[in-house]
Design a protein that fits this description.
With about 220 residues, the chain is of the alpha+beta class. It has one domain: Butyryl-CoA Dehydrogenase, subunit A, domain 3, CATH 1.20.140. Strands 2-1-4-3 form a 4-stranded antiparallel beta sheet. Helix 4 runs antiparallel to helix 5. The longest helix has 24 residues. It starts with 9 loop residues before the first helix and ends in a 27-residue tail after the last helix.
């Protein structure tokens, strides 16, 4: 399959650019940092980390969102052939919105500190908090959500369709899991059951004593 950029819709372009920027912001820009300084030595200390190294749990959601978004663009461009029970626009919208919510949570709930003062004529200051990278990551996640929403409009997907697709996907998963469960029937089970319920064969008659004529066995089905 060849990559055809002319097949990309406006929604695909927004998704692709937002996913690439999200990756750059996550790994290159600083999301959290600590800094301190003192007036005695005139030396300041600072340490910061990117989003991947700062938030060890949320980062997996963010990297999955980036991969799914780039995969959706590759499918639209004809570079990848993928069958999904849920339309890719729906997946990108949902993951983008969830990523934005997680980033907002980290913005409002994160370790922060700040102190300054003078001790024995020595002035000091220290601070800890979020950096510019986390705000840029939020913008990229919102861009993914918006691009996924535009893709849903291009595909003609409504919220009712989203519920139906999600219900169908979960039902298919439940059926697949149930068919492999302990109560699932095994091949040949019905055959063996039918065989076990078959009537026993009629034994041959015993010849009477004294040369009397041998009675004929009753015909099957005659009462």
């Amino acid at each position: 399959m060849n990559f055809d950029i002319s097949r990309l819709r406006r929604s695909d372009q927004i998704i692709g650019v937002s996913a690439i920027l999200f990756f750059v912001f996550l790994f290159i820009f600083k999301w959290y940092g600590v800094s301190s300084s003192s007036s005695v030595s005139g030396v300041s200390f600072s340490s910061s980390a990117n989003g991947w190294n700062t938030f060890h749990n949320s980062r997996w959601l963010w990297i999955i969102t980036i991969i799914v978004a780039l995969g959706a663009v590759a499918v639209s461009a004809g570079l990848l052939n993928l069958k999904s029970p849920v339309q890719l626009g729906v997946l990108v919208t949902g993951l983008g919105a969830l990523s934005a919510i997680f980033i907002l949570y980290r913005i409002f709930d994160h370790p922060s500190a700040g102190a300054s003062g003078t001790i024995a004529g020595v002035h000091y200051s220290a601070s800890a908090g979020i950096k510019i990278g986390i705000w840029l990551g939020l913008i990229a996640a919102v861009g993914l959500t918006y691009g996924g929403y535009l893709a849903m409009q291009d595909e003609g997907t409504s919220l009712a369709d989203v519920r139906e697709q999600a219900s169908g996907a979960f039902s298919g998963l439940a059926s697949a899991v149930g068919s492999d469960g302990p109560g699932a029937s095994e091949p040949g089970a019905s055959t063996s059951a039918a065989t076990s319920q078959a009537p026993p064969p009629i034994p041959p008659p015993i010849p009477p004593v004294g040369g009397a004529p041998t009675p004929e066995p009753p015909e099957a089905g005659v009462a």
